[in-house]
Amino acid sequence: MKTVVLFGGTGFIGTHLTQHFLKHNLAETIFVVDLLGPRESPYTQLLQSGLSSGRVVFVAHDVRKPVPPDLLPDHADLIFNLSAVHREPGHFPREYFETNLLGAENVCSWANRVGCETLVFTSSISPYGPSEEEKTESSLPVPETAYGSSKLVAEKIHMAWQCGKASRKLLILRPGVVFGPGEGGNVTRLVRSLVKGYFVYMGNRQTIKAAGYVKELCLVAMFGLKVLGSSDDSVLLLNFTADPPPSIEQMVNAILKTAGKRRSLLSLPRTLVLGLSFPLTAVERIFGVKMPINPARVRKLVRSNNVLPERLISLGYEFSYTLESAFCDWKSEVPQDFSK
After folding, report:
1. Region of poorest pLDDT, from 1-15, 98-112, 236-250, 272-286
2. How far is it, in rounded angstroms, from Cα 3 to Cα 79?
3. Which of 84, 209, 233, 290 is most exposed, with minimal Cβ within 10 Å?
4. Is the Cβ–Cβ distance between 270 and 295 less than 8 Å?
5. Which residues have a Cβ under 8 Å from the Cβ of 239 and sit 6 or more positions away?
6. Distance between CA atoms of residues 111 and 170, nearest Å
7. 208 secondary structure, DSSP code
């Protein structure tokens, strides 16, 4: 491929995807479009090299606004729409819809304008809603949050773009919890709480959390594009998570083994932790001090997201990372995440 454009390209997934393209020489030029500049960290050395050589070009733009003429090249062989407001909790409902819907419309409009015929949209498993029951690509989406609802509508916007021309190809990825170097979210907090010794179970040892390694997601994206390119299908929807999706206890054990730690972990009733989270949230609001738990996060931790990568398996995809090898790879790139 000559030109690849990544909207939301400087975020966590976009950074790794850019480095994947560079490492495997999959594109001549990669345009990363985002509000914030590219990440500077030891694990992004390949990205920094690409920026210096001109193979990677950063373009500042807000996807909530139409792409101005001459901001980007007049042709793209492949577009990724990674842009999203996704932290839950952390935003007002309006903000999820504003970014995820307007972003989808503007990216699709620009793809139409420059004649790009292959687009990848990173959605989420949130449209399924939390459930102890197994969910696959054939399950009916029943989102319970503004984020999940906005992602589902954004999928439809991309599908409408694909319907505009029979030759267009659309890959929709529904990732679970994606973790790895630079994630900075729930899994990073889990790692740090285990390393520092203040993690406790909340009656959620067997809670299933559909999760997968960010570098595996990059491989899955390339696999999906290859499948689309060699088939008559115009749209391919793939769930992304480890197979099988891990439980909280399995993730905890893998992290402790990677960090070389032994811990006797307490298990508190979830009702007790939930009750404590309310006054802690009040303290956070009054004094502006960040607290490790709040009601929304506690509820997320004790509810399963039992989503299976059924279509990936049926297509013959072979995973490159186990849960343990994923955390080991993360540690090799950012060892300080696994030390006090």
Report:
1. 272-286
2. 9
3. 290
4. no
5. 125, 135, 136, 137, 174, 176, 210, 307, 308, 309, 310, 311, 312
6. 12
7. B
